[in-house]
Amino acid sequence: MSSIPAVPAFTAATAPGALPVLGHGLRLLRGPVGFLSSLHEHGDLVAVRLGPTTAQVPCHPALLAQVLEDDRLFDKGGVFYDRARDVAGNGLVTCPHRDHRRQRRIVQSAFRRPQLAHYADAVRAEVDAAAAGWRPGLVLDAFPVFYGIALRTLARTLYSTAIDAELATGVERAFDTVLNGLFRQMFLPAPVRRLPLPANLRYRRALAYLHAATRQLVAAHRSGADRSGAAGESGGTDLLSALLAAADQEAGGAGLSDAEVHDQVITLLAAGTETVAATLTWTLWRLSLHPAAAEQVRAELDAVLPHGRAPRPEDLPRLAAVDRVVSETLRLHPPGWLFTRITTAPTELAGRPLPTGSTLVFSPAAVSRHPAAHRSPTVFDPDRWRPERVTPAARQGFLPFGTGARKCVGDLFARTECALVLATLLSRWRLAPEPGADLRPVPLATVLRPRRLRLRLVER
Ligand code: HEM
């Protein structure tokens, strides 16, 4: 295994096999992760053509780190973020560098470690509510079940608002349409996007629903806070209260506009639900295929949570096997698999001059399978995350949450939630996949997840 070069001497190349007009678009659409993962064979920075756009793909983990750490020069923008702004406006995920630090300071307050500890009760309550009717032999459709848990947990912790089953299903369906339509929209020229085609109409209807649901959440929070005179059941000021307080300060110029509050609420719903549900789904599938890893997890849970005791946040440091399994799943199946950046000034990367406005495309899924970062990169091996085995190169090649100033603000929230859900479930149940699973990623999905995985509950 080669390590990170001390003085990087990166190579630039152009991907072969571009078709007239479409370029590499068809290959990207047909087998996105396979295509992006293969590019490092040509060079460290590889130019691909997506329709009329030429995009630069940093394939080497160290080169990608260089890009992500300079978020002023390599700013949010490009085909992915242009369309993502249709959904999330100028929220924290999509905003450009000039708005980022101010927004981040406000949102970050809800994600500090002590705050996360308060959220454990909400996670447990949601898992318990979902599992109340579970009986041995019941077959769960994994993704929708975890989506419901993730959405309700997020609403309860960050917004102190309960979401009923009807709203949860509506939001899931609408995000499904919007997030799956987003890539299609990315490749369509603007005049075609505006046509009243059935797919465009579905996309617009789903977007309108999400904006209405967001307004409903904010209104429910405002009236709840008005009634109780205080914010949040999460043991402190919840995020939505902090956002609204920041909006109230806006007159002084340092806070958030009402539109930004709306954009943050929808941003976190988009960024924090499907990603968590996909991670839980992939993790349980991986565990079902790797009995030794599953056994390690069960032994750990029996030791840390005797007699099926519910997990508490202070148990998490002792759930190291659970943590390793989640890391390895995130390495091989990072839910966010494609992002873009745009250069804000002329620069040079891997010796290639890039004018202002150049598009970069990167994929955590491809980088985390790079042989410079991980030995046997396609093998599922949670033990590679044992502290004594983790190398700096492996750390650099692990980017499910991105890196630099734009690194996921919810990384610890997501990991805490995944660990608590898995510990709660696996201390009580074995989950065995039913025949007929379809693990191919949903085509054109923004979040990498299996098309269908059903799990049968078997009592331990
Ligand atoms: C396993 C779950 C998750 C994964 C894999 C994930 C992945 C990512 C990635 C890769 C980025 C960086 C995108 C880029 O650089 O272009 C990001 C940013 C972000 N994520 Fe997550 N995310 C997860 C869960 C969450 C959760 C639970 C929340 C909030 C509740 C969240 C909120 C955000 C926000 C607000 C940003 C933008 C941060 C900024 O630019 O300052 N994510 N996420």
Descriptive notes:
The structure is a single chain. The protein is of the alpha+beta class and 460 residues long. The chain has one domain (12-459): Cytochrome p450 (Orthogonal Bundle), CATH 1.10.630.10. Helix content is 51%, strand content 12%. It is built from 18 helices and 13 strands. The strands form 4 sheets. It has a 6-stranded mixed β-sheet. α4 (78-88) packs antiparallel against α8, α7 packs across α8 and α11 (239-248) packs antiparallel against α12. The protein is globular, with a radius of gyration of 22 Å. It comes from Kitasatospora phosalacinea. Belongs to the cytochrome P450 family. InterPro entries: Cyt_P450, Cyt_P450_CS, Cyt_P450_E_grp-IV, Cyt_P450_sf, Cytochrome_P450_Monoox. It holds the Pfam family p450. Keywords: Heme, Iron, Metal-binding, Monooxygenase, Oxidoreductase.
The H-level CATH homologous superfamily, spelled out, is Cytochrome P450
In the CATH hierarchy, the architecture is: Orthogonal Bundle
N-end to C-end Cα span: 40 Å
CATH topology: Cytochrome p450
Largest sheet: 6 strands, mixed
Q: Indicate how many domains the architecture comprises.
A: 1
DSSP helix fraction: 40-55%
Radius of gyration: 22 Å
Unreliable spans: 226-235
The percent range for strand residues is: 5-15%
- CATH domain class: Mainly Alpha
With strands numbered from the N-terminus, the spatial order across the biggest sheet is: 1-2-3-9-6-4
Structural class estimated from helices and strands: alpha+beta
DSSP strand tally:
13
Family: Belongs to the cytochrome P450 family.
Pfam families: p450
Protein name: Cytochrome P450
Keywords: Heme, Iron, Metal-binding, Monooxygenase, Oxidoreductase
